[in-house]
Design goal:
With about 250 residues, the chain is α/β, with parallel strands linked by helices. It has a single domain, classed as TIM Barrel, CATH 3.20.20.70. About 40% of the residues lie in helices and about 15% in strands. It is built from twelve helices and eight strands. The protein has helices at about 15-30, 50-55, 80-85, 100-105, 110-120, 135, 140-155, 160, 180-200, 200-205, 220-225, 240-250; strands at about 5-10, 35-40, 60-65, 90-95, 125-130, 165-170, 210-215, 230-235. The protein has an eight-stranded parallel barrel, surrounded by five helices. The radius of gyration is 17 Å and the shape is globular. The N and C termini lie close together (about 10 Å). Bound molecules: 1,3-dihydroxyacetonephosphate. 1,3-dihydroxyacetonephosphate binds near residues 214 and 236.
C-alpha cells in the first residue's frame, strides 16, 4: 500500500495567533492518521518551528515548508535555503506550486535544482505539477504535465524516486471551487504513474504517492481519494478550517 497523504497548504494566510488556534482546534477535533498515512502541514516560514513544536510526538504528522531556494547559500536576500530548513528539523518541502511557477517565474529547470538541493539535505519534496485551463481545453494536459515531470525529475535515480510525492493540481481547479471530477483526477494520476513506469519501471512508479489538489473539501475528499491512483490530497482553502481538514484526513484510504 502506498503512503496516503493529506497535506495542508496554508499558502500566505493566518497570523501566528490564528495559526496556533487552528492547530489546537484540529488536534481537538477527532481524526485519525493511521500507520500507512501521513498528515503534513505546509505552513509559512515564520510558523514552521511553532507548528512543529505543537505537533511534536504526534504519530505520522509532519510540517513542511512551502518553498526553498535553488541555491545552497550566499547573497540571496530574502530567500530560505534547504539547509536552513534542515537545521530546524523540517522534513518536507512543497516545490513547484503553480503559484510559485506563475508569480515567481519558477521554471522546470530551476525546480530540478530545488529538488536536488532538497535531496542533498534529506528533505522530501512534495513536487507539484498541473496544467492551466487553456491547455486542458486544448486537450494537451497529458503531454504538458509529462514535460513538467521530465524536465524537473528525470535526472533523479530510481532510488530517489521510490516513495516520492507528487501533487497534481490542475490550475483551473485551484481556489475556484471547480474541482476536477474524480474520473479526471484518476485519468491524470494514472498517466503520471505511467510516465514514471515507462522511465523507471513499475517497481518505482507503484511507490510514488500522487496527491490531487484543487478545491478538495470535506464533502468531496472521499470520492476523489477513493480512486485507485489518487493517494490523498494537497488542500488549500479547506485546510484553514479545522473540522474540514479533520474530515479530509479521515477520508484517506
Ligand atoms: P484550494 O484547495 O484552495 O483549491 O488550493 C489548492 C492548492 O493550491 C493546494 O496547494
Amino acid at each position: 500500500m502506498r503512503t496516503q497523504i493529506a497535506a495542508a497548504n496554508w499558502k500566505m494566510n493566518l497570523t501566528l495567533q490564528q495559526a496556533e488556534a487552528l492547530v489546537d482546534e484540529l488536534l481537538q477535533t477527532p481524526h485519525s492518521v493511521n500507520a500507512d498515512q501521513l498528515a503534513i502541514f505546509a505552513v509559512p516560514f515564520p510558523y514552521l518551528i511553532t507548528v512543529k513544536n505543537k505537533l511534536a510526538g504526534k504519530q505520522n504528522i509532519f510540517v513542511a515548508a512551502q518553498n526553498c531556494y535553488h541555491k545552497k547559500n550566499g547573497a540571496y536576500t530574502g530567500e530560505v535555503s534547504a539547509e536552513m530548513l534542515k537545521s530546524i528539523g523540517i522534513e518536507y518541502v512543497v516545490l513547484g506550486h503553480s503559484e510559485r511557477r506563475e508569480y515567481f517565474n519558477e521554471t522546470n529547470a530551476m525546480l530540478g535544482e530545488k529538488v536536488n538541493i532538497a535531496f542533498e539535505y534529506g528533505i522530501k519534496p512534495i513536487f507539484c505539477c498541473g496544467e492551466p485551463l487553456s491547455i486542458r481545453e486544448a486537450g494537451s494536459q497529458n503531454s504538458f504535465v509529462e514535460t513538467q515531470l521530465k524536465e524537473s525529475l528525470f535526472h533523479l535515480t530510481a532510488d530517489q524516486l521510490k516513495g516520492f510525492i507528487i501533487a497534481y493540481e490542475p490550475i483551473w481547479a485551484i481556489g475556484t471551487g471547480k474541482t476536477a471530477t474524480s474520473d479526471q483526477a484518476q485519468e491524470m494520476h494514472a498517466h503520471i504513474r505511467n510516465v514514471f513506469a515507462t522511465q523507471y519501471g513499475n517497481d518505482v512508479a507503484d511507490t510514488i504517492s500522487i496527491l490531487y489538489g484543487g478545491s478538495v473539501k470535506a464533502s468531496n475528499a472521499k470520492e476523489i481519494f477513493g480512486k485507485a491512483d489518487v493517494d490523498g490530497g494537497l488542500v488549500g482553502g479547506a485546510s484553514l478550517i479545522a473540522a474540514e481538514f479533520a474530515t479530509i484526513i479521515d477520508s484517506l484510504k
